[in-house]
């Protein structure tokens, strides 16, 4: 039954507040439907968002609460993950939608833009529908018309033409049970006895930040009606979207003749090129009297002057050597606070040009990233040019070669051996899309410390002190898994170990030769496991292909989050291959091996990484565990996000990132150690060779 208006508005406010922190972004103005995809109210259009656009949508009508995450993965491909709650029953459904552009609208003539899509691609099939839709603009008016299958064919207008090709298209399942969710329902796609028609129009006002909409939706909501929901009185709906800010849309609608709907959408551009970051203004040590230099720095030593200026500018010069004729300098450099390595290297070049001996003509910058020497950038010294050509011309003389180790450096930074860093801040742990509730959360005080013994070895610790959490309300404390509960008892860790040791580990990182990178970690590795892990990656600087291997022996930790261990132990390991493509900034990884539950299989992952630090990806894992034994979801899959904090708080945030993995459902099959299985490749992603090739941002 429809809820009263006060309860309706309160529920919308309470639900949308759970996503409020995600709308602090600027981006591209786009029009989304209540389903999150580009569209009108409940129906899609053929329109696409700008490439790289990421949007969050919260929609609430008197039938559904819907939260959607939509990403424009390619200029012609849109993907949506949706979490839907039913007003008339205690039930939440998770489903995916994809839409692909077939061709674009002709600027002249009547050829419309056409797209094809599948709604509820992997899920229960509750929202199952497929469609082909065309859109055409006439000035400020945008009209759409589509043919639909499944729920978009409830008011059928003709026999499904595909039945003439194969009789399998004559029928389709209404939905599937929980145990069968997560599988691709290929047999149901574009099937059913009839097809339906849907469509509508929108009008965007020139003088007002307002778009009005009218829509015809053939969906009869048969499943909902059978469970007590009211039958829609009309297929027609009307609404208006207010473009409240550059990154925020608010919509109001009257749907099916007598139902009120509200929609909130926030969006941002993950491709946005950040403003060029420069070193903060300082008085260089070249001009300071020696009395003003800290203890341990000597003004008459060019290396001391160079490292002092670099340190004050958010950079680090670790080691240096000069050739015998002093025409070539080799510098091992690190980037602490610059979001983009090209901006950091530009600052390094400016300081090196100021402080290096006058005889130096060529500089080899050995890039150190997260303890590894990822590559070496060879650059001409700007002040050594005799022909006075522009710096842009010099970019064509920049070379990127394999990372190098200075075996016997002439100079080194002695302060590395006693470097201790401790950070105390507030952090949150959020578990989204629980089948029983939208959000589980914890607010805690985090004390993170790192003590660097030398340039290779670091002791890391992370302590969490609980402030408030609601994981104790979860109905998933006890597991129903037939596999060893390697992850499904996570709620016990989150509740019993609300105050806990997240990490206490000794880590060593190394680069050997040219292109071989390795690390060793031992101690408390992550929230659920302690042990020892090692990983190696072979990635020549000029290659787009890399190979890796990882191996770990771990034991489950006690639920209370202290240092105790349980009886369960396992050896887990993988061989990996990676491809760093030049296709829309996409990188691909495949991992084959044994997982934490001793199941064996393969994980495929795809991530898209932009120069500004944004990284968005998906993964899926198939193992020798059957979909029945795996349980709800059928196989492990999810999303990966890396958000540069500089996009929220400006360049003062340095290189800090917020990273998160979101799973529609947590099961035990296909589980790996977090951050310890094939991660060196991703650690080095922002400092790989093509980050420095012909980059005009390198101009000092």
Q: What features would you highlight for this structure?
A:
mainly beta, 13-stranded antiparallel beta sheet, 32 strands, 10% helix, globular
Helices and strands in order, then pairings?
Layout (H helix, E strand, L loop, with lengths): L4 H13 L35 E9 L2 E11 L2 E10 L5 E12 L9 E7 L9 E10 L2 E10 L7 E2 L34 E11 L5 E7 L5 H5 L9 E10 L2 E8 L3 E11 L32 H11 L2 E8 L5 E8 L5 H15 L6 E8 L2 E9 L10 H4 L4 E4 L8 E2 L6 E16 L2 E16 L4 E13 L20 H7 L3 E13 L3 E9 L4 E10 L6 E13 L7 E16 L5 E9 L5 E10 L5 E9 L3 H4 L5 E9 L1 H4 L7 E6 L17 H4 L17
Parallel strand pairs: 15-16
Antiparallel strand pairs: 1-2, 1-13, 2-3, 3-4, 4-5, 5-6, 6-7, 7-9, 8-9, 9-10, 10-11, 11-12, 12-13, 14-15, 14-19, 16-17, 17-18, 20-21, 21-22, 22-23, 23-24, 24-25, 25-26, 26-27, 27-28, 28-29, 29-30, 30-31, 31-32
What does this structure look like?
With 700 residues, the chain is mainly beta. The strands form three sheets. A 13-stranded antiparallel beta sheet has the order 20-21-22-23-24-25-26-27-28-29-30-31-32. It has a twelve-stranded antiparallel β-barrel with strand order 1-2-3-4-5-6-7-9-10-11-12-13. It has a six-stranded mixed beta sheet with strand order 18-17-16-15-14-19. The chain is globular. The chain starts with a helix and ends in a 17-residue tail after the last helix. Mean pLDDT is 86; it is low at 1-29.
């Amino acid at each position: 039954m429809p809820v009263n208006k006060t309860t309706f508005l309160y529920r919308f406010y309470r639900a949308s507040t759970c996503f409020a922190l995600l709308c602090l972004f600027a981006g591209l103005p786009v029009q989304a439907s209540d389903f999150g995809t580009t569209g009108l109210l409940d129906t899609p259009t053929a329109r696409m968002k700008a490439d790289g656009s990421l949007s969050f949508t919260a929609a609430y009508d008197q039938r559904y609460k819907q939260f959607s995450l939509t990403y424009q993965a390619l200029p012609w491909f849109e993907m949506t993950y949706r979490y839907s709650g039913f007003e008339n029953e205690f039930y939440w459904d998770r489903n995916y939608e994809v839409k692909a552009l077939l061709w674009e609208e002709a600027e002249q003539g009547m050829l419309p833009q056409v797209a094809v899509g599948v709604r509820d691609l992997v899920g229960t099939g509750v929202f199952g529908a497929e469609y082909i839709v065309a859109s055409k603009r006439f000035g400020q008016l945008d009209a759409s018309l589509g043919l639909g299958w499944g729920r978009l064919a409830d008011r059928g207008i003709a026999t499904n033409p595909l039945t003439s090709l194969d009789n399998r298209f004559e029928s389709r399942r209404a939905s599937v049970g929980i145990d069968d969710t997560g599988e691709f329902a290929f047999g149901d796609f574009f099937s059913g006895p009839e097809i339906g028609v849907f469509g509508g129009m929108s009008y965007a006002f020139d003088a007002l930040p307002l778009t009005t909409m009218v829509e015809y939706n053939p969906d009869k909501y048969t499943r909902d009606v059978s469970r007590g929901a009211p039958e829609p009185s009309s297929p027609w709906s009307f609404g208006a979207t207010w473009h409240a800010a550059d990154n925020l849309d608010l919509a109001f609608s009257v749907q099916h003749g007598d139902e009120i709907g509200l929609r909130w959408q926030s969006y941002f551009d993950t491709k946005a090129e950040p403003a060029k970051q420069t070193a903060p203004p300082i008085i260089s040590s070249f001009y300071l009297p020696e009395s003003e230099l800290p203890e341990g720095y000597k003004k008459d030593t060019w290396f001391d002057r160079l490292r002092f200026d670099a340190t004050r500018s958010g950079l680090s010069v670790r080691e240096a050597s000069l050739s015998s004729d002093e025409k070539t300098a080799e510098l091992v450099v690190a980037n602490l606070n610059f979001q983009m390595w090209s901006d950091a290297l530009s600052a390094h070049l400016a300081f090196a040009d100021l402080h290096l001996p006058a005889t130096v003509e060529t500089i080899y910058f050995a890039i150190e990233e997260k303890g590894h020497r990822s590559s070496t950038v060879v650059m001409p010294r700007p002040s050594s040019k005799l022909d006075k050509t522009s710096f842009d011309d010099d970019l064509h003389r920049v070379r990127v070669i394999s990372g190098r180790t200075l075996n016997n450096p002439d100079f080194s930074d002695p302060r590395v051996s006693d470097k201790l860093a401790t950070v105390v801040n507030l952090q949150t742990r959020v578990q989204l899309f629980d089948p029983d509730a939208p959000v589980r959360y914890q607010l805690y005080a985090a004390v993170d410390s790192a003590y660097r013994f030398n340039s290779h070895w670091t002791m890391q610790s992370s302590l969490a002190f609980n402030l408030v959490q609601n994981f104790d309300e979860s109905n998933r404390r006890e597991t129903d898994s037939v596999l060893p509960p390697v992850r499904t008892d996570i709620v016990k860790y989150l509740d019993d170990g609300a105050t806990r040791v997240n990490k206490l580990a000794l880590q060593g990182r190394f680069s050997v030769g040219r292109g071989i990178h390795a690390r060793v970690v031992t101690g408390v590795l992550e929230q659920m496991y302690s042990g020892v892990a090692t990983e190696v990656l072979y990635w020549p600087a000029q290659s787009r292909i890399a190979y890796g291997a990882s191996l770990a022996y771990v034991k489950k930790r006690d639920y209370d989050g202290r240092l105790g261990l349980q009886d369960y132990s396992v050896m887990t390991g993988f061989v990996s291959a990676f491809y760093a493509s030049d296709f829309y900034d996409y990188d691909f990884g495949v991992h084959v091996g044994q997982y934490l539950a001793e199941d064996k299989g393969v994980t495929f992952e795809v991530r898209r990484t932009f120069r500004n630090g944004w990284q968005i990806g998906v993964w899926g894992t198939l193992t020798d565990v059957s979909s029945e034994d795996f349980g709800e979801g059928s196989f492990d899959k999810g999303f990966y996000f890396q958000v540069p904090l500089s996009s929220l708080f400006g360049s003062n945030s340095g290189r800090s990132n917020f990273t998160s993995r979101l799973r529609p459902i947590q099961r035990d099959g296909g589980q790996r150690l977090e951050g310890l299985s094939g991660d060196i490749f991703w650690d080095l992603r922002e400092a790989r060779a093509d980050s420095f090739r012909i980059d005009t941002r390198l101009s000092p």
